[in-house]
Automatic annotation (TrEMBL):
Gene from which the chain derives: Wdfy1
GO biological process, alphabetically ordered: positive regulation of toll-like receptor 3 signaling pathway; positive regulation of toll-like receptor 4 signaling pathway
Residue span(s) of domain FYVE-type: 281-352
Name of protein: WD repeat and FYVE domain-containing protein 1
Record has Zinc-finger as a keyword: yes
Protein's job: Positively regulates TLR3- and TLR4-mediated signaling pathways by bridging the interaction between TLR3 or TLR4 and TICAM1. Promotes TLR3/4 ligand-induced activation of transcription factors IRF3 and NF-kappa-B, as well as the production of IFN-beta and inflammatory cytokines.
Main location: other
UniProt cross-references to Pfam families, sorted A to Z: FYVE, WD40
Lineage: Eukaryota, Metazoa, Chordata, Craniata, Vertebrata
GO CC terms, sorted: early endosome
WD repeat residue intervals: 20-51, 195-228, 238-279
A single MF term (Gene Ontology): zinc ion binding
Length: 410
């Protein structure tokens, strides 16, 4: 059982079902095999392994394949049993896994990048393998011919990728904190828009094609929900993690967002309520409450013969305020702030009688989490990271429903 770190008592928590150990280096990706008691893992120890659950309840490697370079990313298409593995040297290798998951046959190598591959997705309809890398580009290649179809370059490392198979829109997060929306064509692409809102590098993306929502996690410890379908840009800011958000997954059926951070934090956010959008921070040369100058406002400091003050921002109203006008701290879950943040004194008075019950639950995974994926139909989650351990979790007690039937206990 995973231990709680949240201050409020919780009625349920993720159940740790299994630990899979054996890799000699960072496990960069782990995926649950649909409809099977199995996991596929890729590691920087240069191995791809398929683990199947035996009668003893333990997971044992049925496939152990050594690569020429450390493995950095992976995509698996279950219906065709095709697996694509990105490597540190920029190449992507395709394999076909046998029906009994005891053999893996090499298909071809794709020279996709000049540097470490950071993310891969495979589109069966178009027979494209799409990837991003530390060579600052997104590439899409034809899986029939193995040839390069197109590339697009960014100003920073491309760190994560999501793809809408129906519209051929690609979302690429990069280390500058920017997300680029591209429309991919057969041999070219066009930039639709860029999304800016994070103060740190983008570490994870999740695209929900049903509601047309994009979720992004970043090294600034925050998650942003972007309303792509409604063309509203940033709509929600979620802050509850205390380290960089490494992986996210939106469960459309229950309107819940699962996120994992580098310190082992696992959060489940209730998105099935009407939330308030956090305001954009306002800029001012003086406190917007008491009108005292900030320290860079030389003219007002000279005119009033006063020392300049440090600028802060109220998280509720967004106004630029000084320390004396923002002495209070408060959580404000309806706006996504799950822990104490700075609010100006007037906003604190306005919300002190409001219901500030948490709208997320927080759990401790007890290991570094650099990658997470879910089998939503079974309510299972797998996490892995730099501690070389892969953990399999039953998440149904936390998400509060039987995902296979759609029955909700709420």
């Amino acid at each position: 059982m995973a231990a709680e770190i949240h201050s409020r008592p919780q009625s349920s928590r993720p159940i740790l079902l299994s630990k899979v150990e054996g890799h000699q280096d960072v496990v960069s990706a782990a995926l649950l095999i649909p409809k099977e008691d199995g996991v596929i893992t890729a590691s920087e120890d240069r191995t791809i392994r398929v683990w199947l659950k035996r009668d003893s309840g333990q997971y044992w490697p049925s496939i152990y394949h050594t690569m020429s370079s450390p493995c950095s990313a992976m995509a698996y298409h279950h219906d065709s049993r095709r697996i694509f593995v990105g490597q540190d040297n920029g190449a992507i290798m395709e394999f076909h896994i046998s029906e009994d998951f005891n053999k893996m046959n090499f298909v071809k190598t794709y020279p996709a990048h000049q540097n470490r591959v950071s993310a891969i997705t495979f589109c069966l309809a178009s027979e494209w393998v799409i990837s991003t890398g530390h060579d600052k580009c997104i590439s899409w290649m034809c899986t029939r011919s193995g040839s390069m179809l197109g590339r697009h370059y960014f100003t920073s490392w491309a760190s994560c990728l999501q793809y809408d198979h129906e519209t051929r829109h690609a979302f690429v997060g990069d280390y500058s904190g920017q997300i680029t929306l591209l429309k991919l064509e057969q041999n070219t692409c066009s930039v639709i828009t860029t999304l800016k809102g994070h103060e740190g590098s983008i570490t994870s993306l999740w695209w929900d094609p049903v509601q047309r929502l994009l979720f992004s996690g970043a090294s600034d410890h925050s998650i942003i929900m972007w309303d792509i379908g409604g063309r509203k840009g940033r709509t929600l800011l979620l802050q509850g993690h205390h380290d960089k958000v490494q992986a996210i997954c939106y469960i459309q059926l229950t309107r819940q967002l699962v996120s994992c951070s580098a310190d082992g934090g696992i959060a489940v956010w209730n998105m099935d309520i009407s939330r308030e959008e956090a305001p954009q921070w306002l800029e001012s040369d003086s406190c917007q409450k008491c009108e005292q100058p900030f320290f860079w406002n030389i003219k007002q400091m000279w005119d009033t013969k006063t020392l300049g003050l440090r600028q802060h921002h109220c998280r509720k109203c967004g106004q630029a305020v000084c320390g004396k006008c923002s002495t209070k701290r408060s959580s404000y879950p309806i706006m996504g702030f799950e822990f104490q943040v700075r609010v100006c004194d007037s906003c604190f008075e306005s919300i002190k009688d409001e219901d500030r019950t948490s709208l997320a639950t927080f759990h401790e995974g007890k290991h570094n989490i650099s990658h997470m994926s879910m089998d939503i139909s079974r309510g299972l989650m797998v996490t892995c990271g730099s501690d070389r351990i892969v953990k399999i979790w039953d998440m149904t007690p936390v998400v509060g429903c039987s995902l296979a039937t759609g029955f909700s206990s709420r």
